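Extended Data, panel c. Modelled sequence:
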Amino acid sequence: MISILGIVIVLGAICGGYMMEHGKFAVLFQPAELVIIFGAAVGTVVVANPLPTLIRIGNGLAGVISGNIYTKALYLENLKMLYELFAHARKAGTAKLEEDVDHPEKSQIFAKYPKFLKSHHALHFLCDTLRTAVTGGVDPMEIDSMMEIDLEVHHRETHEPIAALNTMADSLPGLGIVAAVLGVVLTMGALGGPKEAIGEKVAAALVGTFMGILLCYGIFGPLAGAMNKNNDAESQYMGFLRMAALAFTKEMSPILAVEMARRSIPPAVRPTFQEMEAGCRGGGKSS
């Protein structure tokens, strides 16, 4: 929601300054200019990108509006889940763990964490890694290399909608000029008429340039930046899962494995060791 607040501040500052100069908002209301600029900008995105990228742009914008989901509470919940999973594997054996990762939707452990089950990429990333580990005979560093490749591919995929939105934002000032030129053409056709009519057409042409620059630097550019920050938060979360899986493959104790994962969490949302221990084992002594 803070992104919406930011857009409100941008628009409020511009409108407030315009009102201080006794400007008339009716002059700024030029639907035709908006149709030309925004419609053409959307068209450039559709031309340049496949449907899956367009869908991810929509999902990314929805994620910006809903806010960052990678909170301290989510990390704490995931630390507890990982501890239960690793402790279960140590107690019941890797054969039981293999059943959980082969069919996570039927797992009693994963069933306690519906948010993680809904995060399909994170779920498949963790389960595929643990499945490879329990097959045996695979060096932990080789597993880490596989995880790194997986994350690199995912990072490239998640960057595509951001690049597309940035390209759209960069095109808006130019399209604003296109709208302004069309406005000048209409003005030329009105020469010889009333001065008021000519003035209105000139104003409409200038509003096109104004809208293009405002939409670029005031709305869509910042939205692309916010999407990038959300992607960074997701990358940090996936790195957290990577550290946990790597610790497991090195046969660390469950509490030490989740502690290694906890250390990889960004400081702003990182639970303390005491919070992690209380969530994982009810505050018992670590081993």
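DSSP finds twelve helices and no strands in the chain. This feature is highlighted in the accompanying rendering.
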